[in-house]
Design brief:
binds heme C; mainly alpha; two-stranded antiparallel sheet
Length: about 325
């Protein structure tokens, strides 16, 4: 190919790629400069430091105070005593924004020269945070790139609102509301008669899920489905001499996790829950000799140690009769 033609192609690629939407599509090869600009800001601007940014653009008094009290604001280099994280770390270099400010009344801060964070594609938004928060420095992000959230265009700042106050984390109190914004169907589950105490704020979504990613399906915490639950419900963990086969390896076989009309959090009511896998049996009443063969609805009235037991039954089997 002639050099001229290659140049033409290069130029074409540059023009075509200014469309940010394209970053989302497959196999994008951005010219490096263009891509850099997405996350570091205009290349003709320089970093000017907090004193200049904040001094010239006084509007942000509350933002400034909140930021200084935040974990980000508190990160100071021990060598230079300069902030490690400042406004420009996320908003891009600010020299163009403050150019001329204060010289005449009319000169305003030109915020449009900063990175337009809201307009970036989700992946680029997250990269702004990930340039500091690598998995090595922030272990919760180990599975981020493979996570359902990252792969569905959810970005760090969909959840972390950094200027709401000094708090950079998501408060436990507000967490459920945050998640329900996008997962409204889950809210309905927790309104069921039997539910994990999320509405009562005794536990939070992150006690079972890691929104940043996990080696398990459904962003679940723990190594196995069982462990997701037995981290709190240790009494049913086992191992027991008489196990309910491997049924209890996944509590999901009998329980739902969010909410259910059948207490305690059962998938269906008894005896139907058990009859999915067993045939029921008649039980002769111990007190009344005339009453033979009663079919009891509540299997766990007798099979009360349904999660497993160490105590043998009369026949020497397990049968989960005794606790
Ligand atoms: C850790 C990254 C980060 C740092 C550091 C940071 N910001 Fe922000 N800032 C953001 C994000 C993210 C948004 C919100 C974009 C959006 O609306 O989703 C934002 C939005 C803003 C907004 C507009 C929205 C609003 O809340 O009114 C202003 C103004 C602002 N930042 C000023 C500052 C100033 C001043 C500093 C330094 C004291 C600063 N920011 C430091 C990430 C940061
Ligand atoms: C210039 C580097 C830098 C950037 C960019 C940055 N952070 Fe941070 N962040 C830090 C450092 C350093 C800490 C403190 C040490 C730590 O907890 O890892 C921190 C801490 C945090 C914390 C924990 C706060 C706490 O109370 O423990 C959260 C949450 C956080 N950052 C979110 C974000 C998000 C979201 C973004 C992107 C909008 C972002 N950060 C961008 C450097 C950065
Ligand atoms: C779906 C919502 C969501 C997304 C997306 C998200 N986070 Fe979080 N993040 C949370 C919640 C909830 C917590 C736990 C509460 C807390 O500790 O803040 C948290 C905690 C953190 C912490 C504190 C971890 C610790 O060990 O204390 C850091 C740092 C953090 N997130 C950074 C990020 C970064 C960087 C991104 C983007 C790559 C991101 N988060 C994306 C919801 C989210
Ligand atoms: C900005 C919107 C948004 C917010 C906020 C959000 N999510 Fe999501 N979440 C999504 C999207 C989109 C998906 C992928 C599509 C889907 O499965 O619904 C997803 C998927 C998930 C999944 C995985 C579903 C599966 O079957 O793999 C879980 C679990 C989840 N989110 C939990 C949470 C939790 C917990 C929070 C709050 C800390 C949260 N989400 C906040 C948008 C969001
Ligand atoms: C007690 C543990 C637990 C808590 C607390 C919990 N979840 Fe789940 N969640 C699970 C389990 C287990 C699954 C996967 C199996 C299933 O669907 O029941 C799941 C599945 C999901 C899914 C994907 C499947 C679906 O039903 O759409 C989403 C989204 C989700 N949870 C969101 C949330 C949100 C939001 C919260 C907080 C309001 C929350 N979860 C609290 C255990 C929990
Ligand atoms: C963070 C701790 C925690 C985790 C993890 C957890 N639970 Fe729970 N669970 C609770 C609390 C707290 C209650 C409410 C106890 C109460 O109200 O007395 C509860 C109640 C229950 C109940 C009884 C409900 C009732 O109405 O009495 C069942 C069944 C249950 N959990 C199953 C599960 C399953 C299955 C999982 C895994 C998907 C799980 N739990 C994970 C804390 C947890
Ligand atoms: C074979 C079905 C089945 C499986 C699998 C199962 N459970 Fe249960 N679980 C039940 C039944 C039925 C009850 C109600 C017992 C009753 O009514 O006396 C129950 C009750 C509970 C309770 C309420 C307190 C109690 O002990 O009565 C908790 C907590 C619980 N299960 C946790 C779990 C956890 C965690 C797992 C996974 C390790 C699990 N269950 C697996 C059937 C099951
Ligand atoms: C998902 C299927 C499934 C469900 C639901 C289920 N079980 Fe089981 N159960 C099994 C399997 C598999 C075995 C092991 C069978 C074997 O070893 O012959 C078993 C074993 C048993 C045994 C011991 C049998 C013996 O030979 O000692 C009893 C008793 C029992 N289950 C009662 C119940 C009761 C009561 C319920 C409802 C609360 C229930 N099961 C729900 C699958 C299930
Ligand atoms: C009144 C008490 C009682 C009730 C209620 C009860 N069982 Fe049983 N079940 C027993 C006894 C006792 C045994 C024999 C235990 C032994 O010695 O091994 C048994 C044995 C079993 C066995 C072992 C296999 C067999 O047939 O020998 C299964 C499976 C079983 N029951 C399932 C159920 C189911 C499902 C229900 C509910 C529809 C239920 N049971 C209700 C007392 C009861």
């Amino acid at each position: 190919m002639k050099p001229k033609f290659i140049l033409f192609l290069g130029l074409f690629a540059l023009v075509a790629c200014t469309d940010l939407q394209q970053l989302r599509s497959d196999n994008q090869i951005h010219p490096v400069r263009e891509y850099e600009q997405l996350i570091v800001g205009r290349l003709d601007a320089n970093y000017v430091g907090d004193e200049n940014c904040l001094g010239k653009c006084h509007k942000h008094e509350q933002i400034r105070k909140d930021f200084q009290l935040s974990v980000h604001g508190e990160q100071i280099s021990s060598d230079t005593e300069l902030p490690l994280v400042n406004c420009e770390s996320c908003h891009g270099p600010g020299s163009l924004a403050i150019e001329g400010v204060g010289q005449t009344e009319k000169d305003k801060c030109k915020f449009e020269t900063l990175l337009q964070l809201e307009q970036l594609p989700a992946q680029a938004q997250s990269l702004i945070c990930l340039k500091c928060h690598s998995a090595a420095s922030t272990p919760v992000l180990t599975y981020w790139n493979a996570s359902t959230h990252a792969n569905n265009d959810v970005s760090c700042f969909d959840c972390h609102e950094l200027h709401k106050g000094p708090q950079q984390k998501v408060s436990r109190k507000e967490m459920a509301e945050l998640c329900f914004k996008c997962h409204s169907d889950i809210r309905a589950a927790f309104e069921q008669f039997s539910h994990h105490p999320i509405p009562e704020r005794k536990i939070a979504c992150i006690d079972c899920h890691d929104p940043h990613g996990s080696p398990q399906d459904h962003l679940l915490r723990g190594i196995t489905p069982k462990e997701t639950c037995t981290r709190c419900h240790m009494e049913v963990q086992g191992p027991f001499v008489f196990e309910h086969a491997d049924i209890t390896e996944n509590c999901d076989n009998c329980h739902v996790s969010h909410g259910s009309p059948n207490p305690p959090l059962l998938k269906s009511s008894q005896p139907f829950l058990c009859l999915q896998c067993h045939t029921g049996h008649m039980v002769s009443s111990m007190n009344d000799a005339n009453m033979k063969g009663v079919f009891y609805n509540r299997c766990t009235d007798c099979h009360s140690s349904i999660h497993g037991t160490d105590i043998p039954s009369a026949s020497g089997g397990g049968s989960f009769i005794a606790r």
